[in-house]
Prior knowledge:
Layout: E1 7-14, E2 18-24, E3 30-37, E4 41-42, E5 49-50, H1 52-73, E6 76-84, E7 90-93, E8 103-104, H2 112-121, H3 124-131, H4 140-150, H5 152-157, E9 158-162, H6 164-173, E10 178-179, H7 180-184, E11 189-190, E12 195-196, H8 198-204, E13 214-215, E14 220-223, H9 226-232, E15 239-241, E16 244-245, H10 246-253, E17 262-266, E18 270-276, E19 286-289, E20 295-301, H11 305-316, H12 322-330, E21 340-342, E22 359-361, H13 369-395, E23 402-405, H14 412-422, E24 426-429, H15 434-446, H16 453-460, E25 463-467, H17 471-491, H18 495-505, E26 515-516
Parallel strand pairs: 1-6, 6-16, 10-13, 17-23, 23-24
Antiparallel strand pairs: 1-2, 2-3, 4-26, 5-8, 7-9, 11-12, 14-15, 17-18, 18-20, 19-20, 21-22, 24-25
Amino acid sequence: xxxxxxxxxxxxxxxxxxxxxxxxxxxxxxxxxxxxxxxxxxxxxxxxxxxxxxxxxxxxxxxxxxxxxxxxxxxxxxxxxxxxxxxxxxxxxxxxxxxxxxxxxxxxxxxxxxxxxxxxxxxxxxxxxxxxxxxxxxxxxxxxxxxxxxxxxxxxxxxxxxxxxxxxxxxxxxxxxxxxxxxxxxxxxxxxxxxxxxxxxxxxxxxxxxxxxxxxxxxxxxxxxxxxxxxxxxxxxxxxxxxxxxxxxxxxxxxxxxxxxxxxxxxxxxxxxxxxxxxxxxxxxxxxxxxxxxxxxxxxxxxxxxxxxxxxxxxxxxxxxxxxxxxxxxxxxxxxxxxxxxxxxxxxxxxxxxxxxxxxxxxxxxxxxxxxxxxxxxxxxxxxxxxxxxxxxxxxxxxxxxxxxxxxxxxxxxxxxxxxxxxxxxxxxxxxxxxxxxxxxxxxxxxxxxxxxxxxxxxxxxxxxxxxxxxxxxxxxxxxxxxxxxxxxxxxxxxxxxxxxxxxxxxxxxxxxxxxx
Length: 517
């Protein structure tokens, strides 16, 4: 810190692996950052849970650290804004305590049978305009059905259903609310009205009275209570915003907040988003409410960075660093000597082939690890580009550039590969912590430091560099993309066969062990 006292805000990001709290300066720069980690609980294959108590203890500890830093520097804290992992379905009782010890997370697949049953009995074309989304196991609507049927005691105690950052807001203020970015991605909100849909709740056998009011991310939902002040170091009475889902808030923090702008968030998964004024109604596209009130049509590739993580483990037993692996990939030419990789290591979120598989295609004796590593990087780019083409057809627009964020935005070779596959520049935000910057933008609006979200983002988001396509690489990739697309389509006929082979080779199931991931 530079020694000058400032009016600051606090940003909180409740992630899947950790909670981070940051002291944000008026220019949305991170002045102090505290991180507290926790684990995912995996009690059975395909399940993923966490404890709300862990989120709160991590948030309180991180807040104590950054508020101490603020006091030491003489900074004041004008407001608190949180973003958090989406879709985790928290059951809250009348007293404000968790009605169930654990919460199914965004990546939990236990609701798959509910989704399949829904798809078998319903006209999906009718549901797209009603929910703005195709069905998927991630949505809280199906998680609520599972909790209702498999933990009726907790369901009976439930007064309110909330998302992870809403739970932290409740602990800070005592207020119950859900922001519109989360509600829009719940499969329970009517996109035409922006409110809960009684017809959908009736059709799914759910209780609309358990849902909190839907608020805008910039709205102040309450103020820090005396008890929360003692636990966190925040001053009693500090305003707390409703906040938003980590993904749409990170979009805002990367500067993607106007129709026609596109984003790729490259983390464990790869999320491609195109902002529009209305939902993109296509069975291959999901839609999220954006922080400024537009819609973000998005597609998610489950194995983005996870594909590189898999290759590191499978080929090197994790003995090499990612930098060393990128160095190996750089030894291979663009196109990896006509080697293609389909990156569907954990299937796909949407469509008839959620059981899709990964594969290398075109292997010959001339290929080695450099080509295989580069093919993995290129395969993720081809898969994202296939999605981008679907979205461009749905909107009739072609973004001139993509804005990249997440851990993958730090790998220059991968960025150059992607820019060449997409055949357009990629812009990189100067501040990598886009979720925290997005929280600071929301707080600037709530405190009156900015007129609206677009103005705040224009002033506070800075793009530090631009990665341009390599023309020769772009020519190579333009010839490979149609082959990738045909391979993607033709491989689908084998996935059910592979499932049958798996079932025939599977050992007799034992009782699942509770473990952490």
